[in-house]
């Protein structure tokens, strides 16, 4: 656990034998954040899967999981005390290890698109980054494999960063960005460097810092990979447009979206690309980013048109993206004074997706705008009943 905390923070942890006893015995029901993340890194699964219980009224402890953790923890402690370090010839890290890490990365990506923003995704991704880096400390490898391991660790850390952004845990996202960019620099992998700097642009956009957002996204757009593969240029231009949206610069929005569309049309769909990119970026995402840009600039009619195009082309497994784009569509309709259609659109979002922090935040803003626009209207009363039953329960 102390080594894991060191990987996360740069300073080795100070977990004592007494702390471990309290964890194993059950005296500590829910570890504090650093200990919880360290435990998840050590065991490769979440704290709740190990039997710990979050401090909420509705959660109940599963005694089977608690006993499972107890047995595993005791086994590790006894094994470490009696056998000492493993003996034998040094193992060599190879392509098979990288493939196994990539399979775990695919699971993180799938969870992100289904659920998005959850702390469990963030902590699991950090734990897997730690597992990847542990290979380099424990075993030998070639220079090529070493770069691949660093790139994989950077990928996991950038997923943790995105989960924190998506969950509006912006301080954590900044810390993950610092770590991810360091790892990506050691990997010399321009694709993952693009992802990290592009995420940084999104982070600063959500923080309302457009100058920093444009600078970070420019760092992504200047990477050589955007010249080699137009699909990266397309994503960079589209995210730039979304940043221009918070500045209200409609001319810049249209210009950069035009560049994004041109680059997207030039890209070879058969070109091999990393999973994190192919899992979400397509024409539907292009329209989704255009929706965000025009909505921020209060060009509601154009935002609505792009939202409809995005939803029509969106892949069914991208549940989080569908909810966000639908919330934006409702906001665009409300901005044009179409109260009934706006409320119908907002109420079409699945209740399970309303719990997502970004969706809940958008719908809270929708509620406030509806109250300012027509507080006594039938659609407003209809929405108020829905929000009281669902939105306030998940967001309040």
What are the main properties of this structure?
0% strand, mainly alpha, globular, 396 residues
Structure summary:
This protein is mostly helical and about 400 residues long. The chain has 21 helices and no strands.
Report the β-strand fraction as a percent range. under 5%
Query: What's the average pLDDT?
Result: 86
Q: State the major sheet.
A: none
Radius of gyration: 23 Å
- Cα(first) to Cα(last) distance is 34 Å
What's the β-strand tally?
Answer: 0
Please work out how many helical segments DSSP would assign.
Answer: 21
Inertia-based shape: globular
Structural class: mainly alpha
What is the share of helical residues?
A: over 70%
- Unreliable segments of 5+ consecutive residues: 57-87
SSE string, helices as H and strands as E:
HHHHHHHHHHHHHHHHHHHHH
How would you portray this structure in words?
- The protein is globular, with a radius of gyration of 23 Å.
- The longest helix has 24 residues, at 143-166.
- The chain is built from 21 helices and no strands.
- The chain has helices at residues 2-9, 17-25, 33-43, 63-83, 95-114, 119-138, 143-166, 170-187, 190-206, 210-221, 225-228, 230-247, 250-266, 275-278, 283-296, 300-313, 319-335, 339-347, 351-354, 357-373, 378-395.
- It is mainly alpha-helical.
- Mean pLDDT is 86; it is low at 57-87.
- Helix content is 75%, strand content 0%.
- The chain starts with a helix and ends with a helix.
- Helix 5 (95-114) runs antiparallel to helix 6 (119-138) and helix 16 runs antiparallel to helix 17 (319-335).
């Amino acid at each position: 656990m102390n080594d894991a905390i060191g990987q996360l923070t740069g300073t080795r942890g100070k977990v004592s034998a007494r702390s471990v006893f309290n964890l194993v015995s059950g005296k500590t029901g829910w570890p504090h954040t650093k200990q919880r993340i360290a435990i998840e890194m050590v065991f490769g699964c979440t704290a709740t899967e190990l039997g710990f219980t979050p401090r909420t009224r509705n959660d109940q402890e599963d005694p089977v999981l608690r006993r499972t953790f107890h047995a595993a923890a005791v086994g590790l402690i006894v094994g470490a005390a009696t056998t000492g370090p493993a003996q034998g010839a040094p193992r060599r890290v190879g392509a098979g290890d990288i493939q196994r890490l990539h399979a775990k990365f695919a699971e993180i990506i799938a969870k992100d698109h289904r659920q998005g923003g959850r702390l469990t995704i963030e902590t699991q991704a950090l734990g897997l980054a730690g597992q990847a880096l542990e290979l380099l400390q424990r075993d030998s490898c070639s220079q090529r494999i070493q770069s691949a391991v660093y790139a994989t660790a950077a990928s996991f850390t950038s997923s943790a960063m995105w989960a924190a952004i998506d969950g509006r845990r912006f301080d954590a996202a900044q810390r993950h960005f610092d770590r991810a960019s360091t790892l990506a620099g050691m990997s010399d992998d321009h694709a993952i460097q693009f992802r990290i700097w592009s995420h940084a642009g999104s982070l600063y956009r959500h923080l309302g810092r457009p100058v920093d957002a444009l600078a970070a996204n420019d760092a992504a757009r200047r990477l050589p990979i955007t010249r080699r593969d137009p699909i990266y240029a397309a994503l960079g231009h589209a995210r730039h447009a979304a940043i221009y949206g918070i500045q209200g610069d409609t001319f810049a929005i249209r210009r950069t979206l035009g560049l994004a569309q041109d680059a997207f049309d030039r890209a070879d769909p058969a070109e091999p690309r990393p999973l994190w990119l192919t899992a979400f970026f397509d024409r539907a995402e292009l329209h989704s980013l255009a929706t965000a840009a025009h909505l921020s600039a209060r060009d509601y009619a154009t935002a609505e048109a792009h939202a409809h195009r995005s939803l029509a082309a969106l892949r069914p497994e991208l549940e989080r993206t569908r909810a966000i784009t639908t919330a934006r569509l409702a906001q665009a309709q409300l901005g044009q004074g179409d109260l009934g259609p706006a409320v119908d659109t907002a109420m079409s979002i699945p209740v399970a997706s309303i719990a997502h922090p970004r969706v809940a935040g958008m719908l809270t803003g929708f509620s406030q705008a509806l109250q300012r626009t027509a507080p006594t209207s039938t659609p407003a009363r209809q929405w108020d009943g829905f929000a009281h039953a669902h939105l306030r329960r998940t967001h309040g």
